[in-house]
Amino acid sequence: MIKQPSSQIDFTNLSFMPVKTKYSYLSYYKDGQWDEGTLQPGDQITIDMLSTGIQYGQQAFEGMKCYRRKDGGVQFFRPHENARRFQESCRRVMMPTITIERFIDAICQTVVANSEYVPPHETKATLYVRPFMIGIGSNLVLAPSKRYLFGVITQPVGLFFKTGLTPSNFLISEYDRAAHKGTGDVKVGGNYAASFFPNDIAKSQGFTDCLYLDPLTHTKIDEGGAANFFAITKDGIFVTPKSPSILPSITKRSLLDIAKTYLNLEVVECDIYINRIDELAEAATCGTAAIITPIGGIEYRGRLVTFGETHEAGPITKKLYDLLVGIQFGDIKAPEGWILNVE
Length: 343
Fold this sequence. Notes:
Layout: E1 23-30, E2 33-34, E3 38-41, H1 52-55, E4 59-61, E5 64-68, E6 74-77, H2 79-92, H3 100-113, E7 126-135, E8 148-157, E9 168-172, H4 189-193, H5 196-204, E10 209-213, E11 221-224, E12 228-233, E13 238-241, H6 250-261, E14 267-270, E15 280-287, E16 291-300, E17 303-306, H7 315-328, E18 339-342
Parallel strand pairs: 9-10, 9-16, 13-14
Antiparallel strand pairs: 1-2, 1-3, 1-8, 4-7, 5-6, 5-7, 6-18, 7-8, 10-11, 12-13, 12-15, 15-16, 16-17
């Protein structure tokens, strides 16, 4: 049964700092099969110190949100796409997959159990949902584990970047987020740990985050540490990088469809060369956590290139944001198959 938001939580001042919910979901893999899985109170687990998840980073995860509609109901945004991407991530690091049906059942069970933590519609805050899998078998040898844990945890969250739709400046990093044809196209833990240091450098210099160039030639924009990149050219074309080292963002794929279907824009996945970014009228990063973060300027080798009005999001970026958020919260009719109601 879907509960109404708890009166004991101030949903208007949420950030991404931990707010514990009551239940999590756990399922264990042993002897070639998964158990039935169950909800448990709390968010603690115990695993072997020599588990492959700890020692060798054999782990994968997803990032999703659950949204409260005006009518009080709760819905997911394109969860089947998350399930498919999760399967690809697990295959890449040699872990057993979870069926799409099992994945959907697990996230829905966890949300229903924690539905009092789904913020009210008017706050535009959400319940972040984190499915994950880790190798838990003790294994000193560099080889895949024989035992795994699949879990789902939740947390109510506000804006990832407090600037919201106010443009931020980004720094082009000298480091690579992922190797060419490495694991950049799957959602595994090591990709994100590798971004901590470059992100810290960017923030220490006054930037919101950094952007990475393609690891093969260092001439084209790939993505941010935790978000994809897109831009609007001066002739009104929606462009976004295409690269084997980029995570296939569900938010970005949705924006491609929205730009084409709702705004009648030409959309192109292509190379975006760093030495030609002054041809862009608007730029932004996008992802589940931050939704859309407008970029006011990009600094590369000491030169800052700015886009449009640096104090507010560009007109097309703003329209894309309003359409995406409207669909996610149930205020705008979604394309067929994009929404899953949690019952």
